[in-house]
Amino acid sequence: MSRMTRQPIRFDDLPLFVAKDRDLAKAVVGPEPKQKQVWLASLPDLEARGFPRHTPGHGRCRPAVKAFYDRLFGLDADTRLG
Q1: Which superkingdom (predicted)?
Q2: 61 beta partners
Q3: How far is CA 9 from CA 15, 24, 44, 77, 78, in A?
Q4: What pLDDT, on the 0 to 100 scale, is given for residue 1?
Q5: pLDDT tier at 17 (50, 70, 90 boundaries)?
Q6: What is the Cα–Cα distance from 24 to 66, expressed in whole angstroms?
Q7: Model's pTM, two decimal places?
Q8: Distance CA 20, CA 59 (A)
Q9: What percent of the chain has pLDDT above 90?
Q10: pLDDT at residue number 82
Q11: C-beta of residue 53 within 8 angstroms of C-beta of residue 75
């Protein structure tokens, strides 16, 4: 039996609203369980800093999450990643 490899999720392949934080975690920090766990545990701190909140029936808005990280790391229109 072959061992399944953890595949990364491309951030831009996520839907407009991401219903599950674990899917967002996989796209943001990668497929490793420990990294995802740390990122998920940091959500309250991130939300206190302006990270988009999870809304009932929608989830988190993917473009707003990207905009949050662009602002956090000082990326302007010329240096933003796809």
Answers
A1: Bacteria
A2: 17
A3: 12, 9, 23, 24, 25
A4: 42
A5: very high
A6: 11
A7: 0.81
A8: 7
A9: 72
A10: 54
A11: no
